[in-house]
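QA checklist item 7 of 12: single-chain prediction sanity check.
[x] sequence parsed
[x] length recorded as 316
[x] structure emitted
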Amino acid sequence: MTARVFIDGAAGTTGLEIRERLGRRADLEVFALDDAARKDPKARAAALNEADAVILCLPDDAAREAVSMIENPDVRVIDASTAHRVHPDWTYGFAEMDAGQRARIAGAKRVANPGCYPTGFIALVRPLVEAGIVPPDYPVTVNAVSGYSGGGRQMIEEFEKKEAPGYVETVVRSYALTLSHKHVPEMQVHGKLAHPPVFSPSVGRFYRGMMVEVPLQLWALPGKPKPDDLQRTLQDAYKDEPLVQVADSAEEAGLKSLDAELLRARNDMRLFVFGNEKAGQARLVAVLDNLGKGAGGAAVQNLNIMLGLPETEGLR
């Protein structure tokens, strides 16, 4: 039986990405509302309750409103907003996060799609915390840069439409200067940290792709681990994962630079450990596409898991 999937907010950046991925598949019936019907509460409520699965690509308040309109207990929901990512009644939709997360997603009625920055951060940090290499109360920092599509339609216009108000010519722009970015709570909770990390995000003049970096002073960690210890821990954590790869030492040694667009338009993520054993320092880096594994690709992966379909269907 073909599952019916309703995308609420299909006209937004993430919604368009998801619709493109799902629209090519014969095993799903994907639908969205036109502008007139989308503004009709009855039509929207009917769509939300008649689908087998709903993907919300909406601002936080609108996502909460959509969930409140669902009365059919059989409807399964994936929320791509920030609204439910640390909510105790929602399952966090990062299947590779630990050994049991995939099963939790499969059995869930409500799944919160991860943020793009947290996806890279949690992938790097959580295995090290669970292995006891990084203490939960360690003062973690994270630096990141994303393509401007991560800021949605308004930021895309700022970088692309010269005639639009607010057009910018900047190459790299740092933001979240108040240290209160909306992704920090999920980084802390799902990274299993006692304190929020210091998060320094930037946006660059490229459309899609991103790098998330966690620098570590290895000499300051309790066990004074070596870079190879970190690499082995990450390789063990993701050894059987089709969408998360950990680069080996030979590959890393041959790199003189790393491109934020390395995985542009792809749905996987690649992790790197660059270390200086003599200095006792390491740079952990995750590279992914902010619209792929960081948004639309993750939503499709979660949908596949929830519906019992091959997990990478439509992703590779």
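[x] summary fact logged: The mean pLDDT is 95.
[ ] second reviewer sign-off
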